[in-house]
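User: Show me a protein chain along with its predicted structure.
Assistant: Here is one chain, sequence first, then structure tokens.
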Amino acid sequence: MVTAPSKIQRAGRAKGPPKGISEKEVADVEEMSAPRTPVIYEVVRRLGEDEMSRPITSLWWSGVAAGLSISFSLLAQAILQEHLPDAPWRPLVVSFGYCVGFLMVVLGNQQLFTESTITVVLPVFKDINLRNFWRMGRLWGIVLCANFFGTLIAAAFCTFTPALEPALLHGMQDISRVLLALSWWDMMFKGITSGFLIAAMVWMIPSAESAKFAVITLMTYLIAIGGFTHIVAGSMEANMLIMSGDWEWWRMLGQFFVPVLLGNMIGGTALFALISYAQVMEEI
């Protein structure tokens, strides 16, 4: 990637290294400096271009893999909850389990719908035309369906096979029942916050380097501890509720799927992606 020379580089060529700093130290400063905002934008935009160019089969199976992987967030939470005493601090520790599925998805480069609410939107903002809108809609539709299918398979596996101990299965169902207390508007506004946090995570990863693990853990932990709603991780919980008889399909679609999907898209696209583009549009 070719970027404009920094002030340090220009000063070095014009007048030699700054006083008290050697040529090697100038290079060290450049290497240690955080990338400029337009550089981060370009990394995320190119990622979106690559995603929209992938074959349908690749998008589908990567999305299914992400749905299966994200199910381990609920499983990890249930495992922690089962082995911790009933104390006021227990939710603070149990919420770390929520990070597990996201770490598997992001570090495994699997296709997650909420990540694409910023990655594929930036190329569209740069070149607004019908073809790019079609490519964006194609990716969103395939990945969302694949993610949901993956969580459906995972929920069925957990519910109808002897893979889990009864206590662990009941723990997963108990955690999922938190959704039952949320209204339509609660679902949507909590989804806005969640969508914004996931988009922020995607934006931060290019400059995180070796701290990717910490960035993913921090942002997804905030979603869990704040009780915010996520369309993919939450669909695992919603499917568990259907299979346990707590929800009907139509109620899940109207009460959970629609408001959370809208909230995640507003938070990731209408808020974060627009702000991200606005801060660099005069520099690109």
